[in-house]
Design brief:
mainly beta; two-stranded antiparallel sheet; 50% strand; single chain; six-stranded antiparallel sheet
């Protein structure tokens, strides 16, 4: 999985197509990510303890990694990821323009 936490991604398909957002959580074992302000669902929560508030809360639900692409600020679009080795250091690059991401 080429996408990590705090990366900026673009949604490729679904109801939020074209939306840019920051990755809040990456789940490589499930091939899913949680993206900020994407795939928002309303959840009805019940108060579990005394004094706790119950109600309707909006929160982000995981989305599959195949439906998002890493955002390249130089290309201003979602791109595929390549890798470049500089000695012992491995960096991610944009396949389109070659810029470091």
């Amino acid at each position: 999985m080429n996408i990590k936490k705090n990366d900026t991604v673009v949604v490729l398909s679904g109801k939020d197509k074209g939306v840019k957002g920051k990755v809040l959580t990456a789940m490589p074992s499930e091939n899913k990510v949680i993206v900020e302000k994407v795939n928002v669902a309303t959840c009805h929560t019940k108060a579990r303890r005394q004094g706790e508030q119950s109600g309707i809360i909006k929160r982000e639900i995981p989305i599959r990694v195949c439906k998002v692409a890493l955002y390249c600020p130089k290309c201003d679009r979602g791109v595929r990821v390549g890798f470049k080795l500089d000695g012992d250091k491995k960096t991610r690059i944009c396949r389109k323009c070659g810029a470091e991401i």
